[in-house]
Design brief:
Length: 339
Amino acid sequence: MLTSLRQTIAELLVNKVAPPKHELFRSRHDISDPRIGDYLFSYEQVKETQINTVAVLLSVPQDLGVSRNGGRAGAAAAPYAILQSLYKLTPFNGEDSLFDTIHLIDAGTLLLNNLTLEEGQALQENVVFTLLEHGFIPIIVGGGHEIAYPNGAAIGLHAMSFGILNFDAHTDVRPLLDERLGHSGSPFRQIAEREDIAFNGNSFVEFGIQPCASSRSHCDYIHRLGGTIMTYTSIRQTGFHTSLQEALRIAENDNDALYVSFDIDAIASAYAPGVSAPAAIGFTADEFIETAYMAGRNPKTRLVDFVEMNPLYDIDNRTAKLVALGIASFCFGLAARHT
């Protein structure tokens, strides 16, 4: 029963996560025109269900790592803006209804008040690991890219083997500051060097790295790990769809699980102006939506996050709406696993 599922999540996350803000969504109360938010807040009306796929939204309002990395703050406010847009969307894509084969639960917002970045990351790792261990598919809504480190650690502790696809303009394998302080530019180095997880560098794919956005030393580090760098230039030469299929193949190959991290600054600022580090070039909105859908459809994908959206610099909620559609597209991909 969905009611018991929600109760289970509440018990797992007590004192760690604030419940979802119901003011995020105002229902139209129109049964002929339901929205995603209508489904999220009506579980008490649902009886028996045979649906096994349950995705859980977890908001992580964190951008201390962005500031520590010299970036512009504001990504901590992104989850509210993104979910506001998500809940207004209809659960129908013109062909399929989203909740015929999956369910989506909002677990709420990680309680990070008065915590250091390291304390918040430890809390996040524990919560995400708990969700994974209980069979849920976490959708983590950030926040800066520093939230990728605890996500990668959680799936590394959960799965026997895992791959990572980083949809990004930057490599995000910078060294720690003072050799001890992580930040928004270091998450994948931290994952790779975490000693208690079996990280396989051969299954690490950097997808969309832009010209003049990474250093030679950072690329050399990835190659030493055995990782694959698909630059934005090479993707344009090969073709986006073909490159994406190859990236997913490498990241999932011989692994139990796949973690996909979506850094919104990989999208051209013409489509996504509200990000921490806007780019003059980048992927189109349609390419982002395709990637989110394909990530959801891949049966090995067990965890995704959406990071670096910054509402302080958005225009008419354009970026928040795009990320919301990306989350919905990921969920439609999940639903397509059952067709």
